[in-house]
Amino acid sequence: MTLFRFAFLLALPLALWGGIGAETSSALREVQLDGEECYRVRDLELTRGDVKFFLTDGFLVFSKPVRGQPVVAVFSTDVGAGDGEVLMLPPNRDERQVLSTYTKAPNLDEHIKEAILFFSDDSASELKEQIKANDWIHRDADRGAAMAAQYGRIVRGLIPPFGTRMMVDLLNHSHEKDQFFAAVLAGRDLGAFEVIFDPTSPEQLMAGGLSVQDGARKFQLWASYTPKSLAGQAAIQEFRADHYRIDAEIDDKLHMLVSTTFVVSDLQHDLRALDFDLSRQMLVRSAEVDGQAAETVGDEGPGTGGDDQSDRLFVVVPGDALHKGTEHTVKVVHEGNVIAEGANHVYFVGSRGRWYPHRDLDFARFDVKFRFPKNLDLVAPGDAVQDAMDGDERVVERHSDVPLPMAGFNLGQYARTTVQRGDYTVDLFANKSEAEDAAEGTELGNRIADVLEFYAQRLGPPPLKKLIVSPIPAKFGQGFGGLIYLSNMAYMNPSGKTFAEAEPGAKLFFTRLMQAHEVAHQWWGNLVSTEGYHDEWIMEALANYTAMLYLQKTEGDQAVNTLLEVYREALLARNEAGVMVESAGPVTQGRRVELTGKPEAWIAVMYGKGAWIMHMLHARMGDEAFWKMLAELRRRYEYKNLTTDEFRALCAEYSPEGAPDRKLEAFFDQWVTGTGLPQLQFASSLKGGGSHFEVTGTLSERGDFSADVPLEVNVKGRWVTKWVRPSGETTEFRWGFDEKPAGVRLGVILADTRH
Ligand SMILES: [Zn+2]
Asked: Distance from the CA of 105 to the CA of which of 144, 233, 249, 629 falls in 20 to 30 A?
């Protein structure tokens, strides 16, 4: 009797945790190749997105089924004149350019020796139909047994990065069309590489390879894009998560135990599995759906490239399917160490905004409650619900009605300064321990209130009426809705010892630009957000450039010119191989822009070239139209995600009449999705008299450039823009005036004028 009870108790957790999720996940991890299902094949073909896989001549073996059908197939060309081929043609110019830096060609056309295909879609039935229809193809069980022995372990070794993703599909859409598909390929020239098709990703197609750099294996993303066939369709979002209630306890070792409850809605289908992203620093302890225990299954171990900074996929599997259109409450208990303590009671919150289960593209509402040691201060955005002492602990509770892209908080030992300005409150928190060289709190608080007012007058109100400003021991800042982080450098007195020997650009950056940049993110990033990293440059460029326009007002033109020149120099710099930073990649590649020996290349491109792009648009539209465009951007895309092409279309609406390239297509092709700076020189002369004057001249361009170049002519004391589209090395221009022009100059353009 005793033994039986013991066994029953042991069985209980198994019943809870050994459900359909764990079952599917372990079936995938232990998947076996089925030697009986091996074929000598010719001329099979699969298309995923717009990538074509040709299994021209070789052997194909399928795996044993998982949830009814095979999930893996291995193709080998190890036979006489065996062959296979992969063909990928990225539709965008920037992706073709990046691809060619890795593969020496703008299209991927590679003959392959082997392919291992992982799929939760209908690939097995699609291939088997082709096999059936071809009389020549025949089964070869002997070869099947040999391939099962040769590839079995390799397959199981490769499945972990795909397993959780495949499990979600297999539970929600078992083997339907258009699900996850990944091919690991052995190329004849390129070596090992991967092609992945994932319809739930904002960019459904991805290709990349592993490289070894300084002894470490690193995944290189060669291409990532939306195929033409899916252009204009948003990524498939199976459901939404909103109305978060996060209850976090931080103990005296800074370990966090968190209970996160939220509402799942907008189910597009009946779902057996709900997938979320979560920081790798957080471990999930348990989950419930509508009060009933649910299974959790998640990726383990380090992310791609061995880092533990990226998010991981984790999945909640309720006991029963959730039905299309219904709403459910999900509770996840998770714990981990995302806060690090530095010297002098300064704390660093890692995994900022990713420390709770979230869906990548959603705006959501948050109620947060933190319990933490009473010697610390904790700041979080929203209306104060509770600020209380409870024995050795403090409790801080905040409520926000406004949707935000992520929930941030900060922790430290702070001195607080409050500045009230009209409708807005700035709550400035500074590290108590760093008072020596620090700027005066009220002065810094006032400056931030000024910035807030400057933007609010032009763009409409920020998402929250109260802005919390807090320090981070790092060289960067970050702007959450209602809460910004400033580098502790930004708290320092500009005329103090910290900046005594700093470059003017660096001093300007930390003591002026960063504050205005992070405040601007209240609009750019927290009211309007972007679809993915390809569009992220818009938010960074706008935050940076509108910050520069604020600086122009407070510090004068010289401050803006200094920063523009710092950015131009950074873009013109070359690495040891002589490659210019600007040509490392277009702004739309965002954080993917890499250049050997210049790790800061992506910063120069996204922030520096991004600011220049806005500066050129500003010059083209004029000040009034530019700010109108920005206000309209906020109005039209509030709580929505913006794409680069939508931004181009909006800017085009504010392009002045009479200017060339009204749709800004050449402008965006050149500056946004392309690379290359014009190397410009011009010469002009003036003829005529009375009321007939003529300016003639030539513009020479030696770079790789195909957009319009602005020249400005001074007429009646006003600079009038004239556009010249370079064709060939030298382009002539001729303009008539009825008054005598007083001079010609180059307009606003990011040019290489050192020649
Ligand atoms: Zn920024």
From this structure: 233
